[in-house]
């Protein structure tokens, strides 16, 4: 089955002479259980693609579906609900809340979704990312790599269909980056998640099954991603 589909997604910033077409009718379909990297020069539309695909921003035209359910078009409340049920995020700068413990940060998406928190299962997911002995720590007591592993646990705790990662290794040393990439790979291979990762780093991209290259807001090439533009 298909986890993510974009059909003719267009996003324009600004108006008139100053308008910038950040995404130009992008169509792609990603099967469930795949790990895709998105690469391209600065300004090519990678972040905008992620924001629109993840329902954090709305395209000007075109549609986005996750598990066959349309993100675009519904009300803000419906979009938020769908996002909380089916989507996880990992950001370059971790975006952890500094006043909350590792455990509290991790279960926050469950609370926001109104789901019951099972502390044993939450501790288990932190053990899976190698932080089983850090549950009560605050983010500022952790290394960058550890913080990003908390962010991965937080992204996976709701058992989402699609996880979006925006330069998840951009602030990490080589060893921490490798650990983070292995966890994303494991989320795909062991747990069947679909991961879409923006990266500048070819080594990071090599952990993915497929690479989509963007240029000027359009797919400009691909490796192992036969579904790009196939739906156009
Ligand atoms: P990338 O992530 O590949 O660097 P972006 O998606 O950030 O590319 O940007 C694509 C294009 O859209 C760029 O020309 C950028 O300047 C423009 N852009 C992105 N966000 C905004 C915004 N909020 N307002 C105006 N222009 C933007
Ligand atoms: P798996 O699918 O890996 O066999 P589970 O079905 O128990 O394991 O849950 C997957 C992960 O999601 C677990 O590691 C667990 O921490 C987390 N999780 C799911 N629901 C909850 C919840 N209500 N409270 C805490 N953690 C949860």
Automatic annotation (TrEMBL):
Keywords: ATP-binding, Nucleotide-binding, Transport. Residues 4-232 form the ABC transporter domain. InterPro entries: AAA+_ATPase, ABC_transporter-like_ATP-bd, ABC_transporter-like_CS, ABC_transpr_LolD-like, MacB-like_ATP-bd, P-loop_NTPase. Gene3D superfamilies: P-loop containing nucleotide triphosphate hydrolases. GO terms for molecular function: ATP binding; ATP hydrolysis activity; transmembrane transporter activity. PANTHER family: ABC TRANSPORTER RELATED (PTHR24220:SF685), IMPORT ATP-BINDING PROTEIN (PTHR24220). This is ABC transporter ATP-binding protein. The lineage of its organism: Bacteria, Bacillati, Actinomycetota, Actinomycetes, Kitasatosporales.
């Amino acid at each position: 089955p298909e986890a993510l589909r974009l059909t003719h997604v267009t996003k324009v910033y600004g108006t008139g002479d100053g308008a910038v077409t950040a995404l130009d009718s992008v169509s792609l379909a990603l099967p469930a259980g795949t790990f895709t990297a998105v690469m391209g020069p600065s300004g090519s539309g990678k972040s905008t693609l992620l924001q629109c695909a993840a329902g954090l921003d709305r395209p000007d035209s075109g549609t986005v579906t996750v598990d066959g359910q349309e993100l675009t078009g519904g009300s803000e409340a419906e979009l938020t609900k769908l996002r909380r049920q089916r989507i996880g995020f990992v950001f370059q700068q971790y975006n952890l809340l500094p006043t909350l413990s590792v455990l509290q940060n991790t279960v926050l998406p469950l609370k926001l979704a109104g789901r019951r928190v099972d502390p044993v299962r939450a501790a288990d997911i932190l053990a899976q990312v190698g932080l089983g002995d850090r549950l009560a720590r605050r983010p500022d007591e952790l290394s960058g790599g550890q913080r990003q592993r908390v962010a991965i646990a937080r992204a996976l705790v709701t058992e989402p269909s699609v996880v979006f990662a925006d330069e998840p290794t951009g602030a990490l040393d080589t060893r921490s980056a490798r650990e983070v990439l292995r966890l994303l790979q494991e989320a795909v291979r062991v747990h069947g998640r679909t991961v879409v990762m923006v990266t500048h780093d070819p080594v990071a991209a090599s952990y993915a099954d497929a690479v989509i290259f963007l240029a000027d807001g359009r797919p400009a090439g691909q490796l192992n991603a036969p579904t790009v533009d196939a739906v156009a």
